[in-house]
């Protein structure tokens, strides 16, 4: 491995497990939560995750003049960043990214698991033409087995994005998925609001949240 390989502590960034964060998780994990409540409170969690992800990106000095005529020696996020949403569930995270970085470019990757082979298959990718020069926030709310994550990272690497320029952001992460990403791509950094107990025999996270995309977009109910 190169000297850019990060330690587990540097690679996996778990949000501080505050009482407020636990209260948000209590709402979104509730199987009886109304969709409006799920979307609102999931968005609050995602906002915290995006902020933590931005903290890992390059900053550059930027001076401003205050209203009293003094110079404040500040910082701003470097211009060469973008988001990449793993469709469909990852699209739920785009609004919070745009709210924090209105000018950010956002690409899309669609990966689905083959029903026969159970292997992830790339169906679609549309990325910024200059993505190889950018730091990437890879957006997918769920990291379970890691199969989709590994396939998405492979797409980014194939476009010339350095491994250490990828920050993978999840709402929930299973230990098995974290281990899979760490084993193959140790320089990819991850941000999550919860590391779950484990996966069950059907690869669902425990205690879990259900199908995030279905619950967020309202495709889990019959009207």
UniProtKB/TrEMBL annotation:
A Pfam family that the UniProt record links to this protein: UPRTase
Name of the protein this chain belongs to: Uracil phosphoribosyltransferase
Glycosyltransferase in keyword set: yes
Domain spans labelled Phosphoribosyltransferase: 16-219
Residues in the signal sequence: none
Gene Ontology terms for molecular function: glycosyltransferase activity
UniProt keywords, alphabetically: Glycosyltransferase, Transferase
Organism, scientific name: Microbispora corallina
InterPro entries named in the record: PRTase-like, PRTase_dom
Keyword Transferase on entry: yes
């Amino acid at each position: 491995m190169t000297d850019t390989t990060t330690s587990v502590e540097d690679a996996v960034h778990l949000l501080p497990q505050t009482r407020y964060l636990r209260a948000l998780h209590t709402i979104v994990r509730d199987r009886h939560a109304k969709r409006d409540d799920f979307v609102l409170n999931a968005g609050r969690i995602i906002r915290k995750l995006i902020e933590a992800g931005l903290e890992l990106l390059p900053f550059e000095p930027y001076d401003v003049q205050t209203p009293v005529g003094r110079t404040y020696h500040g910082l701003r996020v470097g211009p060469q960043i973008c988001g990449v949403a793993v469709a469909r569930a990852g699209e739920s995270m785009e609004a919070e990214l745009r709210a924090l970085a209105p000018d950010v470019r956002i690409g899309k990757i669609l990966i689905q698991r083959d029903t026969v082979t159970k292997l992830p298959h790339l169906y679609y990718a549309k990325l910024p033409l200059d993505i190889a020069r950018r730091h990437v926030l890879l957006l997918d709310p769920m990291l379970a087995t890691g199969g989709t994550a590994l396939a998405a990272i492979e797409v980014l690497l194939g476009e010339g994005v350095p491994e250490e320029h990828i920050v993978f952001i999840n709402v929930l992460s299973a230990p098995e998925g974290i281990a899979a990403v760490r084993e193959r791509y140790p320089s990819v950094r991850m941000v999550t609001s919860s590391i779950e107990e484990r996966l069950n025999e059907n690869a669902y996270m425990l205690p879990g949240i259900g199908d995030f995309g279905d619950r967020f977009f309202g495709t889990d109910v019959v009207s």
